[in-house]
Protein: HTH tetR-type domain-containing protein
Organism: Chitinophaga parva
Amino acid sequence: MITTDNRDETKDRILDAALKRFIHFGAGKTTMNEIAEDLRCSKASLYYYFPDKQGLHLAVLEKISEHLFQTMEERLVEMKKATDTLLDFIAIKYEFGCKFFRLEIFKLIQEKKMITPQQFRAFRDREHKLFTRIFEFGNDQGEFHLKRPATEIASLYQDVLEGVRYVASDGLPVIEIPNEDFFAKIVAKQRAIAQIFINGLKYKD
Amino acid sequence: MITTDNRDETKDRILDAALKRFIHFGAGKTTMNEIAEDLRCSKASLYYYFPDKQGLHLAVLEKISEHLFQTMEERLVEMKKATDTLLDFIAIKYEFGCKFFRLEIFKLIQEKKMITPQQFRAFRDREHKLFTRIFEFGNDQGEFHLKRPATEIASLYQDVLEGVRYVASDGLPVIEIPNEDFFAKIVAKQRAIAQIFINGLKYKD
């Protein structure tokens, strides 16, 4: 008899196997067959859990973004200085982006196919709550001197960091899929901008 | 005999008439016929200067962006505080954007038809020089304490302000043509971000 625990465990094993394949060979090039072979299970049992590759791909993305949020939330618990946590978050997201480049997340977001604007918004809202807590913490500790509510600062911060992703050096929006080099360039810019933004919050009139 | 002076004068009169029409009725809805009527000249003489509406439209845009730059450059000459000039520039560009909304600049930029990436880059480069001078001035006067070269700060500042234009509240790039309300919302965000960015430059470790 398959219990809920068993089912969750099998699902997790499938997600891990798919993730490994996706990272090594790219999500587009991986077949359901290959994943079944890696797991030494029949295609039928794989399809029982994930009727198609798109569903599996999405489940993998959900799992790793859950992991990303957990990492960020843990960092929040042990926060001592808001500045350090903000810069940590950029590093964590960069690492996440590099590791999972082959999961074709950027492609999916831009195609607006599998990842809907609603899902994207949910991601942003969750991140917004984390940033709000960091800015509040920094203000309470006297590290920042906020002239606007922390929730508004968090939105502006998100807009600023997200915004540079779409601005190429000629200022036209980049809607192409970024390659590794371009991604690294964007993150370097985010870091420089975050530093100025953070100093702006430290500034006391 | 048509002298160069005469020709320039006639061209200018045509551009002024076209601009008036464009602002009132929109560039798309204006015909070459209507412009000729406003000028009380024959269509033939209008077409002598501008063989098609697209060329006329582009010439109008060049004229008004030249005017925008001249306004900004004059402001630079009388600069007393870098902060004031930076905030002035946002106001000047907003006024420019509102006044010339019907010139369908945003549409042209996004369609990448009439305004090429090269032209866009030239615009950005010229603006970059102005910003660099403001940041240098602020640093020289002790108003700012730059931790990076003024030219790099200027690029980051441009990226930040341009970037928010493409970030909707859900973080997906907005490639639709902004309406008046959306435009006002973006500029309010730019103002808030500019203030934090500027304070970041004032901050002394």
About this structure: The two ends of chain B are 68 Å apart (CA to CA).
